[in-house]
Amino acid sequence: MRVILMAVLCASVLAGCKKDDSKAGALNVAIDYSGFTRGCVTVTATDADNAGNTNSLAVAIPGKTPGTVSVAVYRKKDWGRVLSVTTQLHEVDCSGPVVGDQQEVKAQVPEEGAQDVTFSVRAIDGDGDGYFSSADAEGVVSGTDCDDRDSAVSPSATEVCNGRDDNCALGESDANDKKSWFVDTDGDTYGSSQVAACTQPAGAVDRGGDCNDSDGQVRPDRTEFRCDGQDDNCNGMNDEDFDVGDDCKDELKCSGKVACASTPSQTSCARLPTENPVAWYVDGDGDGSKGQDEGLGCEAPVVGAVTQSEDCDESSVYVRPGLPELCDRLDNNCSNAVDEGCGALAWTTEADVGGAADVTAIALYDEGRKAWLVGTGRLVHYDSTTGETTSFTSPSCTGNWRAVWASASGRVFAVGDEGRMTTRGPDPSDQKCFTLTAPNSNAQTTLYGITGIEQPMDPTVYVVSNDGKAFKWVEPYHADGNLTEFGSSVSDNLRAVWSAGSEDTLLAVGGDDNAKAVAYRYDTASSSWQPDLQGGTFDGQLRGVHFTDGRFAYAAGENGLVLKRSGGVWTSLPTVFESNGTTKAGIRDVLAFSEKGIYVATSEGRILFYDGSAWTTVYPGGAPLSSLDGPKPTRIVAGGTVGTVVSFTAPTPPVP
């Protein structure tokens, strides 16, 4: 192939324009090529004396290999005769990439004829795609084809994700079909920031949509698990499973809206500003007036609750507004005064009641008008309305009796040494008693405490002993098997037992080996006595226990100790001292009608009264006392040594 190149490529000359004699001489530029069939060579002629005189011609490779392409170069008449001729190889075609180094030859154009100028170029295009191999080989032009064995790989190829560099640039990073991956910072298999790559990058996953990539618990495709004002499952909603904003009632039954609580996954009821809780009061003591504080609320906690207290003492049925004032040391009518117009309240002392033997225990019935007295070798019935006493001296009725309880019908139950128990009715014409021994007792067993629970027929009685056992006696009392051990035995010395009228309120008290106060509550579910006061908290063996109702119990004993039980918690009242003001009293029994009306009897023979703040002596003493009983605060009786009976009967107050 031969091409004529004018000093400035003259298209008209190439097209056969009129020959210029000044250009008769020429350079015959021959370019030898091998190793490829497609390409282009740019031939440039430049005046050596004036670089501004230059022109170029792009010469396509003719499509065979090896071969030669020739170009005739003429000078213009105003150019010098020495020309610089350069060649530059292109891949594919004349617009393709320049490859290899530029070659240069300086030659003088002859006056006539032609002078040969030769260039040689060698490049490898093994796959025939027009792009030369980029392999580094001596004497071979290095092209841009990174895989000259595959015509599908070349700089003009479309990069796709197939594990190779199709366009010989940037690997697969410029592939047009890269997959979407998502950076998973918190490791929950869902990512947030999107990245494109042919293969999975380290730390990336194929699932996106994580709206909080710093919390591994927050991700799509899960339930909303925290009420926190945040979108935990990345569905564009916050706390949708927690009913936030719905109507609700809070713990005080005030209207509100469901809101997230401070604890994650929890909700609370945010009270409306228009809802204000108030205090509610109920009738805790059963006297018909409501004064027990049931706490704050926007709704009544129970039917009949009121928002204004109606009772000044919710621990006693003997105190409420509207009751007549009695001479009983209580503010019966809630007037903030006690015993208005009553004057001094007197006690009556009788000695040798039913004989000179000591009274160890006394039990009243018939509104306190009648009583049973027991002691060593004595069982005596006493009628205060007539002053008549009846002693039951039959061998079946005698014993060293330690405690006594009488039912509403007048039936008596006495217990004492060697585990002996007896019962009888009040009829004096029958002198016999029914007596038996507690099961599994012995000569060292002493029955110290007894109480009863009324039944439709005859009562059920409960007894406790010094060896930690309890017994239950049901009617008919003579039948075999009707006196049994009751509940589990304990390791302490039990001295008294009482209830609020049901087995589940039974409470037994006494002392441990260190003379510390103990108490046990009977648990009906497990049929056992459960510790209620243990651990040596209070110093002094308890000798008596009494309930005002199921909410309040009082126990008393040695070292002037008086305890109050409320809500299952034991607390101490002020210590009781003997008359010298320094010796702690030996309390033998306790009787309670109110938190502000508690009596104790002491071994010194005194009876003291607690008004809610302090103890005062209401009976100055004489013979040592051992027992205290009374059905109501207007009738109280105590028993002691040498047949002593101390009684209080409230006088009738004057009419206002």
UniProtKB/TrEMBL annotation:
Keywords (A to Z) from UniProt: Lipoprotein
InterPro entries in alphabetical order: Put_metal-bd
Name assigned to this protein: Putative lipoprotein
Pfam families per the UniProt record, alphabetical: Cu-binding_MopE (PF11617)
UniProt superkingdom: Bacteria
Origin species: Corallococcus coralloides (Myxococcus coralloides)
The keyword Lipoprotein appears for this protein: yes
